[in-house]
Amino acid sequence: MTAVVLAFMPAIAAGAPKVASTALCGDQVVATLVAPDRIAALSSQSLDPTLSKVADQARALPVMPASAEAFLWSGAEIVVGSDRNDSKTLALMQRLGAKVMRMPPQNSFAASMRQLREVSTALGVGDAGDGLARDAEIRLAALMRAKPAQSVLAAYYRPDGGSSAQGTFINEALELAGYRNLAAELGRKGWGRLDMETLVLNTPQVTVTAFFDRPGWSLRHKFSHHPVFRTLMAENPLIAVPGALIACSGWPLIDGIEFRPPARRGAMKTTTLNSALVAALALVSAWAMLLGPAPLSFSDLLHGLWGEADLRVVLVVREIRLPRLLLGLIVGAALGLSGAALQGLLRNPLAEPGIIGTSSCAALGAVLALYYGWAAAFALALPLAGMIGAALGTLLLLLLSGSNAGTLTMILTGVAISSLAGSMTSLAMNLSPTPYAVTEIVMWMMGSLKDRSMADVMLAAPFVALGGLMLLSTGTGLNALTLGEEAATSLGVNLRRLRLAVIIGAALAVGASVAAAGAVGFVGLIVPHLLRPLTGHRPSALLVPSALGGALMITAADIAVRLIPAGTELMLGVVTAMIGAPFFFFLILKVRKAHQ
Known about the structure:
- Helix 5 links the parallel strand 4 and strand 5 (about 100).
- The chain has helices at about 1-10, 25-35, 55-60, 70-75, 85-95, 110-120, 125-145, 170-175, 180-185, 195-200, 215-220, 225-235, 245, 255, 270-290, 300-305, 310-345, 360-370, 375, 380-400, 405-430, 435-445, 455-470, 475-480, 485-490, 495-515, 525-530, 540-565, 570-595; strands at about 20, 40-45, 65, 75-80, 100, 150-155, 160-165, 180, 190-195, 205-210, 240.
- Helix content is about 60%, strand content about 10%.
- The chain is of the alpha/beta class.
- It is elongated, with a radius of gyration of 32 Å.
- A 5-stranded parallel β-sheet has the order 3-2-1-4-5, with helices on both faces.
- Helix 18 runs parallel beside helix 26, helix 20 runs antiparallel to helix 21 and helix 27 packs across helix 28.
- The protein contains 29 helices and 11 strands.
């Protein structure tokens, strides 16, 4: 009998191979990608408008219950389905000679896109499938650029009380949309339920519902009509996602991701935050220009800047205070911007510019200039040697870690280079011929803006500007990287190019800063952390505020070194370390608590 059927099928299916689907996800792929004259049958699920995105197309196509007899008679040579509900049908169709392609449920967007490309290629419509996948990836990338803070607690439920936790595509969709999934936060996995007491004890900020529009569900189940649940729905925002959007993982899910939660409390528009930082920076800069041994008024300051005052006033304003202010702004912006970019690249809240070894290598270069007396012979030898040291350190980092190095490899390589540069610096201090040379090296390594000239500013500014532009260009890639390296790659992000841009950009900016002002620590660690909650935790939105915040912090710290009563002016690096070390301890305790 089987032989008779196998001989009968080619006669029915003569011509272009026809496709049938036994499951809803297969329906959506087949109806979207395959020409109507090639579709032998779809499953009856595709007629349900609350579940299927292709209900309108399905009405004009052959639709029948999923059965081997129906598909056999329809002339289907290719059958697309899932083992979850129709494994016997698929197995029988395979025995009868049909080509069977299984589409098991995928629990990540990237895996769904791979599956879509594989199935469309097997169906002979590879270009259409690839185009659909690329369109979905582009749309997801655009959504990620406007992604809100991932700190809004949401409870996903179906009217029967069902929910989803870790390892489900619903959980990934919630995270992509900027939610923290309550079920996942509770450590649960897979598909399960959220009982009333759990909801009351962990009151979500947002309730996300699905399949609520399916006829009969809300009447059949008591969960959605319970007084407790109704109270929660009345007190918290409700986002009703049509069941059609999340019946299958993959490209249909993109429309569901667009249902976004309320903005995080305390989050500000980037333009508002930047305007506030610029205003604060202007006030602090004016204060910094008025401070110094020479008692200048604001009028003296303005006339000195325009060169219309006494010669001594002009010299103090133009040649002493203005270079000091400008260099502080440049150094602070470089450190703050580099810290924000590195924390986004390494996805590590404790990352800062020193982690890649650039600061240590720049310091080593400057120390060598002091050790060998080049700094005394040539005024710009000190910053030039520091920049050469930073460049060599970055080159060594890229050579040792490799062009396709992962995040962990780069961190370990940077730590090793930093340790090596630190030991060489200590060796130079140990071998210094006089205690005066040691004192000069130690004082320079503490960092200072005192007595810098416009030559230092002009030397550092181009390299900081070039590095800053490279770092600012990485915003979109850093946003995608928050989803993980695999997801970022699926969105078209070139991770190798992104890493090189951040590493080289940070090396240029930080190397020039250290070369001109000495080692000033903690700015790149503190500033991004203080501003991150105000930017919605988006790496791209944090870059410019971190540059402005870094400039503000350095300028304020430079004011502090002149105001703190001491026998001599404090070093800038000492003040930033006094602020940064306790803050660093606080971050360590915070991270430790989060992992407990």
